Amino acid sequence: MSIQLEAGTGLSSPPLARAPLSEDRATDLARMFKAISDPTRLRMLSLIASHENRESCVCDISPAFELSQPTISHHLKVLREAGLLDCERRGTWVYYRVIPSALAQLSAVLSSEAGVVESSVCVPDAAIAEAAR
Asked: Which of 38, 54, 87, 109 could form a disulfide with 13 if both were Cys (CB 3.0 to 4.6 A apart)?
């Protein structure tokens, strides 16, 4: 299942430290984080993002890795399905480009902005001991 995240869709998440994620949002973000948890895919994403216009031909990606073409295609497919990359065929070559809004979402959710969720409803042990006196 592909989750294409585009700017302006309202799919951004508040930072983890500010508000709890919904189940659906956590699932979408986990899919993206899982895709980049593999060192090869993280390197591929970085290689593509660092190219001019944040896009790269598969012919530029392949020489950077000691992997077979089917394995490279698999990793690129995982990144596409996670919503981190988009691609376009131009003649015989496929060009991959980073989806900036997806990277922005990953960055935003990891921000350390302070939370707004109310305090815990659990009574601390010290309060229990004080009440028992």
From this structure: 109
